[in-house]
Amino acid sequence: MTMATVDLIYFNAGGGHRASALALQATLRSHAPSWQVRLINLFEVLDPLDKFRSVTGSAPEDWYNKRLARGWTLGMSQELKLLQGAIRLAHPMLLRQLQQHWLRTEPDLVVSLVPNFNRVLYESVASTLPGVPYVTLLTDLADLPPNFWIERDQPQHFICGTSRAVEQALALGHDAERIHATSGMIIRPEFYESATVDRMRERMTLGLDPVRPTGLVLFGGHGSKAMLGIAQKLAETTQLILMCGYNKALAASLRKLPEGAPRLVVEFTADIPHYMHLADFFIGKPGPGSISEAVQQGLPVIVVDNAWTMPQERYNADWIRDNGLGMVEGSFRSIDRAVLRLLDRFDEFRANVRRIDNRALFEVPGILEGILEDASGGERSVERPPSVGACRVSGCQAITLRT
């Protein structure tokens, strides 16, 4: 086996990019033990002296994550345009910083799991390490053009988790041979493991009703104040598991709510699959990671799509509707009625959820191996398992998420 150094580029805005990078790193180490797989925090490369924190008192991602926790997402479409404009203005400086980094570290393959920076990332790799492949792995179900995930006029590779994202890459003129389809989003390996705990007994141990329909409420690693409204609306009718992540203040507020239907408040834990196994359905924002995890665990979903929905997540509501995976509401003010409608059609939604077969985590290693093989002139770097392979656009129909 030939050694290869693979760099996975992420940042901590929202948590999903880092989670995907960690999941992919773990799988690549198993798939190709000879590869050196490095996690690269983009902001640490661009700001190695942490000047942003010294001036503002926080990391760039902290401001974004606090806004998510407080639900301050209205107007993000306009702010995204300002951010992209600032990145274009700073392009020469960012390019120099990245060029210096690649000259020092010399990877054999660069995989970006971040949006907005793919123009400068690609140009920095191409100008300093000719022949080193550059890959953008979308951690959203679709692109948000222009200049979000898929840039024009740069001969790179794309890994797309839906047929919609494949179509977008093709529409922007990219070579079909460089567009690789997977059957969904990358999620952690733990979501593929079979549960061993007795579901009813574990519910009783945690103070929940063992037979009552149970919703799991999750808004990412920093929670959301929307969870308070959801818990209050459903206090008398619906048993809930409320995942608060790092938001201790939110957890404390939820615990102070008047008693009603059984409720379990959980602060940060890495064992999300365990709690999803105890639930019957999911309530949350339409984040690509959260809804993919819920679907993998067999949970129909209830999400909201409105002016406060982040622009890059709006297609996700269409994906839920198109695949019949649950309810898409205009507001959580109607969450009580949404739960009733979901339970009325529960068997239908659960059957649709179970038809989704997301194997992206195990498909991507084979795709990356094929890219490295092509770049090296056909020399194989590792033995590819028969069950895993690159799905180019020409053959992606077999693993496109089904409706």
Quick structural gist:
By secondary structure, the chain is an alpha/beta fold.
Task: Describe, in plain words, how this protein is organized in 3D.
The chain is an alpha/beta fold and 403 residues long. The protein folds into two domains: 5-187 and 359-399, Rossmann fold, CATH 3.40.50; 196-355, Glycogen Phosphorylase B (Rossmann fold, 3-Layer(aba) Sandwich). The chain has 17 helices and twelve strands. Helix 13 (288-296) links the parallel strand 10 (281-284) and strand 11. It is globular. Residues 379-403 have low confidence and may be disordered.
Q: Which architecture name of the largest domain does CATH use?
A: 3-Layer(aba) Sandwich
Mean pLDDT: 89
The percent range for helix content is 40-55%
Q: What portion of residues belong to β-strands?
A: 5-15%
List the total number of helices: 17
Q: What's the Cα radius of gyration?
A: 21 Å
CATH top level label of the largest domain: Alpha Beta
Biggest β-sheet description: 6 strands, parallel
Distance between the termini: 40 Å
Summarize the helices and strands and which ones pair or pack:
Blueprint: E1 5-10, H1 16-31, E2 36-41, H2 42-46, H3 51-56, H4 60-70, H5 76-89, H6 91-105, E3 109-112, H7 118-128, E4 134-137, E5 157-160, H8 163-171, E6 179-181, H9 199-205, E7 214-218, H10 226-233, E8 239-245, H11 248-255, E9 263-267, H12 272-278, E10 281-284, H13 288-296, E11 301-304, H14 314-323, E12 326-329, H15 335-344, H16 346-355, H17 360-375
Parallel strand pairs: 1-2, 1-3, 3-4, 4-5, 5-6, 7-8, 7-10, 8-9, 10-11, 11-12
Helix pairs in contact: 1-17, 6-7
